Amino acid sequence: MNDIATPTAPRVGFISLGCPKALVDSERILTQLRVEGYALSPSYDDADVVVVNTCGFIDSAVEESLDAIGEAMAENGKVIVTGCLGKRADVIREAHPGVLSISGPQDYASVMDAVHAALPPRHDPFIDLMPAPRLGAEDYADGVKLTPKHYAYLKISEGCNHRCSFCIIPSMRGDLVSRPVDEVLREAERLVRGGVRELLVVSQDTSAYGVDLRYAEREWRGKAYQTRMKALCEGLSELDAWVRLHYVYPYPHVDGIIELMTARRADGQPRLLPYLDIPFQHASPRILKLMKRPGAVERTLERVQSWRAACPELTVRSTFIVGFPGETEAEFESLLDFLDEAQLDRVGAFAYSPVQGAAANALPDPVPEEVKQERLARFMERQAEISAARLEAKVGTVQRCIVDAIDGDLAIARSMADAPEIDGLVQVQDGRDAGLRPGEFADIRIMGSDEHDLYGEVEYND
């Protein structure tokens, strides 16, 4: 990252951990730092203070966060901690009593106050005629980005109203707080105007967007939109960019989103990417009840099949937990049967592990660790076969792709079915010779596949 202040400006190091929602928090803090004249340091040695944005969702994330704080303390000594683990200040203080400040997620003001206390901004009477502004949410569209310039995460809400027994996110990020739809659409518009070609919509529960605001109506581009998922997607589909939905719960009103995925722009491309990231977590009604998962779980398979019937090119990715307390072998086998029937495109899975503060810790009949790991291996083996077959079916087709990078002679791209970081890639064998550049769209003829990625050659590039 380039410096964005004068050579004499105070310098802040920054470590960002966790999910895309935490990454958006980091971008907002970094943008405010830039507005107030701070420089960003890529090394501990050159930093006057270090900010660590932590994750605290599962035990491995807590350990990673504590390790990052410890490294920053050892290498620099002046450390400000924020993020989800900040909600457990006692854990941080016990491990690292010398940190300067601790705050929770989305608490940008506390982070800036801590930076000001540790490292006051340098005053220039010839320049600083007005105090630095506190930015509004949509102002961050023009700010620091931690993603490549051609895609960006668009966070539409904070928190969650569900109380899943394995999850402690509501205790860290609170109940659902949706952003007004016009604010989100204006931010998206400015991102696209600034060169973003793909918008990744993120939240804790995208399907519940706007329920806390009673779906309040707001105006954008002279048209009224409700603060609800479908209306938001309708607005986003008016922009010249891919729009990809994450963290969608399979409520009935998701059916209406499929209509936008089948509708076409003037250039023949979908108005909304035919892609849904839906955390199903399990297939057993009893286990899902123990998990306190929302929705009519008995209709999940029927709903996926109806979506595919309406939109054959739809990609469905999901996550699952195996070895949840009380899970029987028969219930695990029902999960494998669900995979066979649902034929999901992309799947991630985790062996259940207790998270401090989660209600599931008190459930009876924990699954032995060796059984959990054996089930996880069987699960991933079954899904690998499904994913490989679904990718192989694309050999010989032409896929619209976005280029992420050039690596030697290859272009590393992604199809409509591939979100960055979590899904597969399309390796374009003649990418450099064809003159592809990051951020460009290209039509790629698929020549081969494996269980993760596709391989192809350029058919046409914009």
UniProtKB/TrEMBL annotation:
It catalyses: L-aspartate(89)-[ribosomal protein uS12]-hydrogen + (sulfur carrier)-SH + AH2 + 2 S-adenosyl-L-methionine = 3-methylsulfanyl-L-aspartate(89)-[ribosomal protein uS12]-hydrogen + (sulfur carrier)-H + 5'-deoxyadenosine + L-methionine + A + S-adenosyl-L-homocysteine + 2 H(+). CDD domains: Radical_SAM. It is an enzyme of class 2 (transferase). Gene3D superfamilies: Methylthiotransferase, N-terminal domain, Nucleic acid-binding proteins, tm_1862 like domain. The keyword Metal-binding applies. The keyword Metal-binding applies. Residues 146-389 form the Radical SAM core domain. Residues 392-460 form the TRAM domain. GO terms for cellular component: ribosome. [4Fe-4S] cluster 2 binds at C160, C164, C167. SMART domains: Elp3 (SM00729). Its main location: cytoplasm. Its cofactor is [4Fe-4S] cluster. Pfam families: Radical_SAM, TRAM_2, UPF0004. PROSITE patterns: MTTASE_N (PS51449), MTTASE_RADICAL (PS01278), RADICAL_SAM (PS51918), TRAM (PS50926). Its EC number is 2.8.4.4. Residues 10-120 form the MTTase N-terminal domain. Signal peptide: none annotated. [4Fe-4S] cluster 1 binds at C19, C55, C84. It is found in: Cytoplasm. Keywords: 4Fe-4S, Cytoplasm, Iron, Iron-sulfur, Metal-binding, Ribonucleoprotein, Ribosomal protein, S-adenosyl-L-methionine, Transferase. Binds 2 [4Fe-4S] clusters. One cluster is coordinated with 3 cysteines and an exchangeable S-adenosyl-L-methionine. Catalyzes the methylthiolation of an aspartic acid residue of ribosomal protein uS12. NCBIfam families: 30S ribosomal protein S12 methylthiotransferase RimO, MiaB/RimO family radical SAM methylthiotransferase. Belongs to the methylthiotransferase family. RimO subfamily. This is Ribosomal protein uS12 methylthiotransferase RimO. The gene is rimO.
